[in-house]
Write a structure and sequence with these properties.
Length: about 250
Amino acid sequence: MRRIAGRLGRLVGTLCGLGLLWWGIVRLGGVPPYLLPPPGAVGRALWAQRGLLAGAAGTTLLETVSGLLLGTLGGGVLALLMMASAPVRRWMMPLVLLSQAVPVFALAPLLVLWFGFGIASKVVMAVLVIFFPITSSFFDGLRRTPPGWLDLARSMDARPGLVLLRLRLPAALPAFASGLRVAAAIAPLGAVVGEWVGASSGLGFLMQTANTRFETDLMFAALLVLATMTVLLWWGVDRALARMLYWVPDDRSD
């Protein structure tokens, strides 16, 4: 409890400091509200439009979680296939790297054209954003199995499939968890980018609409909701992984 209270205290202190800095920039710098609204105006927009923001956040969260689940499943399966088969590795690794060479902003209009303005194009965008960190981290973990384990398996004439499932897979789980934490933090980006390009709901669509109407306070309110949702999603994934991989030492200091 003391550790949790300490973390909450640091979080509250950081948020208060950022809020004071924000207020000081607006108040002392004479920044017009349409460029940077004061924290009080954003707070009022959060309360006044809480129903609208909650509905938009629900849409974005659904897109994000769907993309995270599908991207994690696809990236994990592909990493296992590349580890098990050299031909698959030679053919698929360039495609995995190519997926990061094309900016997501360039793909978003095509995905909206192909999959429509509904949830499908946003889910695909989120999958593309997280596919590389999941695949690369898991594949790297599979390759870094302790040599002593592999030597023992060879001495016992273990089949390659068993070596992959019984040795390489457990050894790669910490690396996979690191990639999943990164994916949880960036998955909302893919959904929001898709909403910016073409959507009828979601936080990205709400921010874009508020921007065109010069409702900067509402746009900042939606941005704060998105940031809070991303932090909570990352925290939930981090806590779940910590419980599942309980044997991995936690070196994070308080």
